Each structure stands twice: as structure tokens, then as C-alpha cells.
Amino acid sequence: MLGRVLKGMGGVVLLGSLLAGCDMGRAAPEESAPSPEAGQGRETMTEPRGNVIDDEVILVVDDEAHVREDCEEREVVVSADRATVVLAGDCGVVRATGRGSVIEVGSAEKIVLVGVDNEITFAEGDPEVINQGRNTTVNAAGGKED
Length: 146
Description:
By secondary structure, this protein is mainly beta. It is 12% helix and 37% strand. It is built from 2 helices and 10 strands. Strands 1, 2, 3, 4, 5, 6, 7, 8, 9 and 10 form a 10-stranded mixed β-sheet that branches. Helix 1 (2-8) crosses helix 2. The protein is globular and about 35 Å long. It starts with a helix and ends with a strand.
């Protein structure tokens, strides 16, 4: 009879409902292993507590920082306020997301401004420029670009 009931009423759902009340040797919910505390056991995205300079990225987060580096094709993100960043050589993408920073680069593939009152100057090349910032400028050495 159970076979006919299962077949006629969507067996999996009914069987699951029937078995839910049976003691299958599982621990009761209050006996299960404790759940991890908030933030433990999970990878979370946090903002760095200081500037990060590694093989792939130059990340300037410290307000009023003064950074001088060889870009070496790295991605650059300046989210700090009132930073001064001087980068020699070729950069990948250069992003200015903070406020009131001055950034000088040798060259860049792309320059993206989304912050406020930022200025980026590049010495050579013809980077793609995306300027969505407020009161932000991109200057080619010797002339104004955007």
C-alpha cells in the first residue's frame, strides 16, 4: 500500500515527510556540533590596514601617504585621501578612488578616476581614460588630457 501511495502522491516528498519523524540515529539539533562564531571559518573580504605593494598590485590606502615605486606592469589602486604617488615605468590599470590625491605615472594601459579632486599625470603613451570622478583630471605630460 505504501508503494501505491508513494507512486500516486509524489513519492520523494511523502517519503521524506514520513522519515522525518523517525529516529534514524541522528543527533538532535541541540546535540549537533556548535556553529562557528561570526567571521570564523569563512573567508571574508576586509580592507587592508596599510599600503600593499606586491608582484601584482600597488594598493595605496593610507591617507596622506607618499609612495614612490617602479610600476612594473602592476595594477595600481589609490583609495587613500590626499596621497602623493609617483610611479616610474609602465603600469597596467591605474585607479584613483579616494579624494585629493596626486598620481604621476610613466605610462598606463588604462586610467580610471571615480574619486573626488584627484589628478593623474602620465608621461607617455595613450591610455584609455575613464573619468567618472568629480573634479578629477588626467594630464598628459606637457598638456591637459581630460
